[in-house]
Input
Amino acid sequence: MTAKIISGSEVAKEIREELKQEVADLKERHNLVPGLVTILVGEDPASVSYVTAKQRTSHELGFYSKQDNQPADMAEDELLKLIDQYNSDPKIHGILVQLPLPKHIDEGKILYAIDPRKDVDGFHPVNVGKLMIGEPNYLPCTPAGIQQLLIRSGTKIEGADVVVVGRSNIVGKPIANILLQKREGANATVTVCHTRTREMASYTKRADILIVAAGKPKAITADMVREGAVVIDVGVNRIGKTPEGKAILCGDVDFEGVKEKASAITPVPGGVGPMTITMLMMNTVKAAKLAAGIA
Ligand code: NAP
Output
C-alpha cells in the first residue's frame, strides 16, 4: 500500500480562503475587523521570520494587524504594561507574544498576563483548563491544525485508536485532550507515549491514527506502524544544509518506509507546519466574534 499524502499546505490554503470570506462578511455585515498584535522582543532570526509570516497572513486575510517590536533588553515590567494596554485595546482581539523570550523575562508570567479572551495561542491556563473540562475556547494552534487535517482528509476519528508519541504542553497533551473530547471530530480512544513508555512499538502498532511529536528524526519506522494507519508527523528536525545553505528538514517518522504501510501520511515540510499559523488566524476571527457577541 502506498499512502495518500495529506497536504497541510493545501488544507491550510482551503481554510484561509474560508477565513478571508468570513472576514469580508464580518466587515460588511457587522463593521467588525479582527485585530491581531504580534509582540516580538529582540531580533532572534527564527522569531523574526515566524512573526513576519503571521503578519503577512493576517494582512492577506484582511485583519487589522500590528507588529510591535521591542528591544531585547526590555524590562519584564515594561512588557507586562504593554500587554495590559493591548488587553484593553478594543481594536485588538488577539495578542501573540512570540516565544522564546529573552532569559531575563519569565515566560509564564507574560503568558498569564494576556487576557484569556485574547489568548489566541491557547496557552493561558484558563484556556488549557477549559479544554480539559470539555468546554474548549481557543485550541492551541498546532494541535488544532492536526485535528483539522484529520477531519478534512476524511479520517474516521470517532472510536479510533489514537496513539500520540510525545507529551509536551504545546503538542502531545493538548492533541490527546482534543481527540478525547465528547464531540464531533473527536471521541477517539487515546494513548500517550513518552520516553518512559515500555515497548512503545506495542502501542504504536495498534494505532488507527498515529500522531508523532517527539522531536527525534525518523524515530518511527515502518515496523512500528500498523498496515493502513493514518500517520501525522509533527516533528521538524534540521538534519543538515544543502550546498546553497538551506536547512534540510525531516520529521519524526521515516517517511519513505512508513508511506508504504500507512493509508495516509503527512509530509515534512508541508504537513502540520502550514496549519499552525492558519489556526492562529482562525482563533483570532473567533476572538473578534466573541468580543462582538456574534459567536
Ligand atoms: P518537546 O517539548 O521536546 O517534547 C517531546 C516529547 O516527546 C516529550 O514528551 C518526550 O518525552 C517525547 N519523546 C522524545 N523522544 C521520544 C522517544 N524516542 N520515544 C517516545 N517519546 C519521546 O517537543 P514539542 O515541542 O512537543 O515538539 C515536538 C516536535 O514537533 C519537534 O520536532 C518540534 O519542532 C515539532 N513542532 C512542530 C510544530 C509545527 O508547527 N509543525 C509545532 C510545534 C512543534 P518525555 O516527556 O518523557 O521527555
Summary: Residues 208 and 229 are 5 Å apart (CA to CA). The first helix runs from residue 8 to 30. The two ends are 43 Å apart (CA to CA). The chain has ten helices and eleven strands.
